[in-house]
Design brief:
Length: about 110
């Protein structure tokens, strides 16, 4: 999928993405790796940041929690305007167990 089209779809459903606090859950390019090469989720995060959003990432597979291209690691217990799940994660958000898989960024 084209990342720009994904942003268009999100904006059609939820309004303009500007000055929002956004968490991307799943940043590496696939499950079981911390490899960011060819990561559509990272590309999406960068484009959202370029649109003047405050973008954070969370990924169980990335052990070193560091800023990546200006995108800081986020905490699941924080509040966000939008949470985008881009790959399977076994996590809890605000006390609710979440095991979600967003295949091909389908919204």
């Amino acid at each position: 999928e084209n990342v720009d089209r994904i942003i268009e779809i999100i904006e059609e459903k939820y309004g303009k993405l500007k000055n929002k606090k956004i968490l991307i859950v799943g940043l590496s390019f696939k499950e079981g790796t911390d490899d960011l090469r060819d990561s559509k989720a990272l590309e999406l995060a960068i484009k959202l940041k370029e649109k003047e959003n405050e973008v954070y990432w969370y990924d169980d597979d990335i052990k070193e929690k560091r800023e990546i291209y200006g995108i800081k690691p986020g905490k699941l217990e924080d509040k966000y305007d939008l949470i985008l799940v881009t790959k399977r994660q076994n996590i809890e958000i605000n006390g609710i167990g979440l095991r979600a898989y967003l295949n091909n960024f389908i919204l």
